Amino acid sequence: MFAFVISVLYTLAGISAFIVFLIYGNYPTAVWAIITAIITAINGHLHWLKLRKVLNQWYERKELTPIYYIGFVCFTLGLMGTGYHSTIEIMLKKPMMPINQSEVTAIVWAFLTARGGLCVMFTIRSFSRQQADDEEPCIVQPTSNDSLNTVD
């Protein structure tokens, strides 16, 4: 439940930040904010299905793999964006104010995109393992016909 609530809050924050940064004219930060909102909405969707116990009806294990790759791509892009905007901030020493010229906000939202991608990857991995555990029995019970139970 906690992960679902956090995902919803990050999704709402991403959408709000997207609108605010579009108004202020900081377009790179707006793009990072909407990507964060989308990736955390995916994570929230998966947690919602798990809470309702219908994840197995919506997705099989093989169908979760492309979503895992989306998380990996967002994680990679977020790390690259964090590095890029950090380099620009260090080299050009841009001020934090006015908002439309700030690289610090882009660094924060690029990092949040990386975090969201990583969360999706771990969520998919966890749910895939749970589905695998549900499908395969851990212990095989011997039957009375097995030769293991007989003593010679």
TrEMBL record:
The keyword Transmembrane helix applies. It comes from Photinus pyralis (Common eastern firefly). Signal peptide: none annotated. The chain crosses the membrane at residues 7-24, 30-46, 67-86, 106-124. This is Uncharacterized protein. It is found in: Endosome membrane; Lysosome membrane. It is a multi-pass membrane protein. The keyword Transmembrane helix applies. Belongs to the HRG family. It comes from the Eukaryota. GO terms for molecular function: heme binding; heme transmembrane transporter activity. GO terms for cellular component: endosome membrane; lysosomal membrane; plasma membrane. Its main location: membrane. Keywords: Endosome, Lysosome, Membrane, Transmembrane, Transmembrane helix, Transport.
